[in-house]
Amino acid sequence: MPTETFEFQVEARQLLRLMIHSVYSNKDVFLRELVSNASDALDKLRLAALRDDSLDADVSDLHIELEIDSDARTLTVRDNGIGMSYDEVGQLIGTIANSGTAEFLKELRESKDAAGEEGLIGQFGVGFYSGFMVADEVTLLTRRAGEEKGTRWTSRGEGTYTLEEAADAPQGTSVVLHLKPADPDNQLHDYTSVWKIKEIVKRYSDFITWPVKLVGAPAAEGAGEGTAEGEGDGPAEPETLNSMKALWARSRDEVSEDEYHELYKHISHDWREPLETIQMQAEGTFEYQALLFVPSHAPQDLFTQNYKRGVQLYVKRVFIMDDCEELLPPYLRFVKGVVDAADLSLNVSREILQQDRHIRMMQRRLTKKVLSSVKTMMTKDAERYATFWREFGPVVKEGLVTDSDNRDAVLAVSSFASTHGEEETVTLRQYVDRMAEGQESIYFLTGESRQSIDNSPHMEAFRERGIEVLLLTDPVDEVWVDAVGEFDGKRLQSIAKGEIDLGVQGDEKPAEEREKEAEEYAGLLEWMRERLDEDVKEVRLSSRLTVSPACVVADSQDLTPALENMYRAMGQEVPRTKRILELNPGHQLVKSLNQAHRADKDAAGLADTAELLYSLAVLAEGGRPADPARFVKVVADRLERTL
Ligand SMILES: Nc1ncnc2c1ncn2[C@@H]1O[C@H](COP(=O)(O)OP(=O)(O)OP(=O)(O)O)[C@@H](O)[C@H]1O
């Protein structure tokens, strides 16, 4: 097969350009990326060999080699792992599939200024292409385990690459970097220097569970470090540069935060530091160790079907799978990390995991551990908790609906925006603790945004009386409030549902006055109900309005408009729910309407006013009138008459 030349996919070209021209200072990370890829390839091969006896692959001495050739000015990163087929090289190396990378490029495009660009690249796991930060040509020679022929890929990072068959390739992958001249002023170090390579491996890749060996280093330089064996000019014995200690198996005081963070970046493909590191060792009949991380940012695809959830599963230090979903519930799907179980079979499959009793036990304990860590964060570090809740609150709240066993624990780490303050969120505990004497319910209002809730007419009486209301703006809020129902004996009550009796606050109207009002308005209310029959099932006087003329509310059992929309969006048929229209008898518009109706219920314009009043109430809660064009026309006519 002849050598073929291909063009990089557009995103890949863009990333390459960045790598080559970036002013970004920390070029050392290229080695972390290549070692990380090599380590993944070894994991994959070991697993493939375990699963498939007939795989013709050598797994006797899996390792990573770094080879320096000072004369040729090359650095080679070699592994004897799974390798890639000819087609795979084209697919994997010529394109960008990693969603993290795509997201990164998008952010980069959006951050127009160079400083933002540098900051972003600085924290990003840049993958294979990062080799082009230090090399002006990269050659990759690879052979997939079990296949006969290898593939050679070469590129100068300038828009094209070549592919050719290579008959002589050993199993695995070697990446040869033809190094650019060292330029210490621009942080481009001499990567043929043994001590530099050692330093980088120690810093970024110490935890890699495969040996990272330095081969072909001149003995003199290695001996100068006091670690390499042998003397004279001949090549030294390969030296293993990393400790290979699985971080999850070490006690917390032996491991630095930086080391944990490097592991997090290795397994999550995130380029930022995690928010929280959680370690757990379970001993007894079923032993396992877990090292879990809460990221500092919610990924954009967290709410999509494609989101890959789950942690890495190891069995006795052997990597078994990525994205093991069975170890944490869906509402903790943002948690990343490693779980290493001592007593599972190396051949364990997803099907087995789904039914395994031990796995279920582990899930229960890991869930509790994550929730208790968040609880600690909440009490000890309010700011970090605030970040956590902002990023992951909408997901965690799903647990209030789906995990009845842990509902109390989830509720204890949940907090909500409230009328009590602009910035901080409150827990139900805090809400209940400061409830006024006689208040029986925990009041809340759901809606699209804080602003629309704040301005909603339902809020008026509560604001006037200084009663705190929780402001719930996530879609899941519509659901969990029903699932939870009450807290500490206090019912969760939507202020847009049912009759609201704020009499407890001591300033209610006397009963006679209410009765008199009811009598005066009875005719209007009945007439309006008939006029608005299509949309409204009841028209009544309100005790929740002080400023607005009208508002719409639902019966306590009714679906809210937001829930109705949610079900429709999911393709479910839901009958249209008629609402209840409440009128404010203290408002001049309502008073005048009543007088006009009493004088002559057929008076011109009366019906339009009734309709307007209803549309205004719908608008005020963030909805839209059923017939906007007609609404506009009626309003315009009215305005015209006032001029
Ligand atoms: N040494 C290797 N052996 C086998 N396959 C490899 C090797 N290096 C890279 N690959 C394949 O190429 C793909 C792309 O690698 P690349 O480093 O660009 O991205 P990544 O590792 O998926 O993600 P990240 O951007 O976080 O590094 C890998 O997912 C892997 O399938």
TrEMBL record:
InterPro entries to which the protein is assigned, alphabetical: HATPase_C_sf (IPR036890), HATPase_dom (IPR003594), Heat_shock_protein_90_CS (IPR019805), HSP90_C (IPR037196), Hsp90_fam (IPR001404), Hsp90_N (IPR020575), Ribosomal_Su5_D2-typ_SF (IPR020568)
SMART domains, per database record: HATPase_c
Keywords of the record: ATP-binding, Chaperone, Cytoplasm, Nucleotide-binding, Stress response
CDD domains for the chain: HATPase_Hsp90-like
Keyword Cytoplasm appears in the UniProt entry: yes
PANTHER family the UniProt entry points to: HEAT SHOCK PROTEIN 90 FAMILY MEMBER
Protein name per its UniProtKB record: Chaperone protein HtpG
Species name: Streptomyces ziwulingensis
